[in-house]
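Exercise 7. Predict the joint structure of the components listed below.
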Amino acid sequence: MKGFRLAWKKFTRDRLAFTGFVIIFVLLLAALFAPVLAPYPEDTFQIHPADRLQPPSAEHLLGTDSMGRDILSRLLFGTRVTLVIAVIAVGVSLLIGVPLGLVAGYFENLFSEGIMRVADIFLSIPQVILAIFLAQSFRPSIRSVILALSITYWPWFTRIVYAETRALKKRAFLEATEAVGAGSLRTIVLHVLPNVSSSIIVRSSIGMGFTILTAATLGFLGVGAQPPTPEWGVTIAESRQFLPDAWWYATFPGLAIFIVVMGFNMLGDGLRDILDPRIRRGFD
Amino acid sequence: MTQPILDVHSLRKHFKGSGSFLEGKPRRVKALDGVTFQVLPGETFGVVGESGCGKSTLGKTLLGIYRPTEGEVRFKGRDITRLSKRASIRLKREIQYVYQDPGSSLDPMWKVRRILAEPLVIHTDLNRRAVRERVREMLAAVGLGEEHLSLYPHEFSGGQQRRLGLARILCLNPSLVVLDEPTSGLDVSVQATILKLFLDLKDRFDLTYIFISHNLSVVRMMCSRLAVMYAGRIVEMGETSALFERPIHPYTRLLISAIPMIGKKPGTGGEEAEGIGEPPNPESFPPGCRFWPRCPHEIEACRREVPDLRPGPDGRWIACHLNGGEG
Amino acid sequence: MTGSNDRLLEVNDLTVHFHTDRGVVQALDRVQLFVDRGEVVGLIGESGSGKTTATRSVLRILPPSARIAGGRIRFDGRNLLTMSEKELNATVRGRGISLVPQDPFNSLNPVFTVGTQVRDILKWKGGRGPSGSIEMERALDMLREVQIPSPWEQLKRYPHQFSGGQRQRLMIAMALLPRPGLVIADECTTALDVTVEAQILALLRGLVREMNVSVLFITHDLGVASQICRRIVVMYAGQDMEDAPSERLFERPGHPYTRELLESLPTPGGDIRDIPGEVPSLLRPPEGCRFHPRCPSASADCRRKRPEKVEIEPGHWVRCFHPVESQP
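Solution:
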């Protein structure tokens, strides 16, 4: 308990990390309460041609789009799309990448060498091209975005977990654990995994930002989410033909992407410090 | 005559060295090169030597952390170098190893409660209450209290971490304990406390110690018999008191004369006092007797032939061409 | 003999605090210490006794969390605590006072040859000498002095090509090059093997005699201290407890802590004696004499105020109300 309070104190004092935390917290609230918060919840899909391209005003705080829909409302609902894509893609990457990284790092044989080479191959596939390929083979959709992101993002986790595990193997306590008689599975799950978890969490947080950015790019290129989904990248793509007159149309979704990606990156850096018990209850 | 609890015969451990990129073939690092000794039940057997002499490798090879390249290690009459995995786990209960730096040998993410319970969870079918009971008992045996159970390893001082390391292995009721540099990095007053604890635990739990150290004063105090290692081999072995009073091998003489001791007038340690050179790098041991480049008495044979460990006076074993015992 | 002219370094009532997350660590409490010209003084104590903090204060290289809360440090007649950083760098650090570090493995820059690093010292700290070539000649002499064979070839090699003992010889040579008045040797033999340690100690003894340099020798090893120091200052938990000629200190220690420390050394065949209790936390150090909670002869006075230093015999000071009876 005391340790937790100390960690929290340390965290709040780290201005960057705390800002990141607040941003993500607000994002979560927005996603959760979008129907309540949005001034025109029905605007996600309903169009009002009469109100098209209104600049920001008291009625439409962030203006309206080419279909007369309230941009603020669409941004709020967009948080849901964004989060779902990011959480699933990162989650799947974790499920694939972490176990492979642990195995490859813990054992030092041909098999682990093989895992790493496969990871390298996947790492070298450009995401956008893979997404275009998937969109072509199936149909452009959120699902193909998630698939493309998961397929290309897991090697990052494998690499980082692999590197951390190899570093841990040089530490005496793993050898000591084996000397006490612990088997490989026990050692990996109970000793290695907790010790690499802080890196995984940090990487996940940064990965969320990265995934959101890529998802928006894919939406923008038309190979991801499709209109009328209120996805941010899609919105920016729609706005192109109305620039520069309807500046608000592209600016606010762009700003939303920027802030959220920043937020995840800042949070990721801050988490690293408080997740380590040595730092949590350290001397200075 | 009592059966030895541990019987080590011509033990070798070679590592692959860091070969150069162009030459291609890696050198072999002969960390242990034919080590033979016996440990009797209940004794404290000392292994001393300087850095790179192979004493830590010896400890870890005895325990099966390293797989020996050659040779036999018989524990209670059974060769333990070629055991099945299951048998070796069972055996690991009986031989335990205490790390040089116990702070780094404890999982930093685990609390003491879990660390101490782990060996019991692995090796026994005790229920949770029994495990908790035993953990408390062991904690008390090493002089720590209940309030320490929910702390992380880094929250302990160096001396306390040594105690934790001991408590963890005692849980399993071992009969042979390898102590690797158990006092290095400790202050003198803490060192005394820990040494006392070793003696106390030895009596209470019927332990046999292998005491690996570079600190000769501590070894002299703790050990009944002693092996002096140099560059992967034992050069001299015998009763501690005899060995200190009348060292025979030139290296032992150098080592003993080099101990900085209060009351010893500087520069009066005789011809060996300051010696020449430094212990060789394990990647490039000299041929023949590995001590000859530093030996004041070196003769032609020393550069060519490896001296065998032969029996000498008063139960001593010596590996030296000049002082080859009685023969 | 003890005129103020002989005083090279004088530390008076030095108090240093570290400001950390957990509070103020009272690392040094009014410590007194001096080194005369040509003298080898040992500063001994266990970890946390403040010996390193004391020497870092002298060079003013304390970490940012440290505050010198009081006291004076005079070196060669000048006040080091009021001196500007610039002046310190120009006249004291690496010039008047040089440091032989504990760890010869990390103290040389691995990407430059030894020659480059020696030349750097000559350039920045060599000062007085006339021209480069003469100075280089002197550097080679110095390497011969520390018994490094064929020094000219060695200058072209990188630090990792030297063994631990040779690296420590290099560090000693580099420390002595600028002709310092005082050398601070911080645990400089701790990382070495016994046989090598003996060689380095012998080397240092010879150099001190020859070059008439003063040495402040910091160590936790009483045996090592006895081999090289003429006078020894014993520290405990941030206080200086005793200051005595080395032989006398080991034969007839005046402070209960020193006596207990000596008795806890391993002796062949003897019983093991330890000091009951633990070293106190310097976040909340005991009032008065900081050794009193572990001291067998502690009285009410010891718990209230810090004892003044008493000269129980000429040149033998003890900071204790109840010094150990000095009669043999």
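Discussion. Residues 194-211 of chain C form the longest helix (18 residues).
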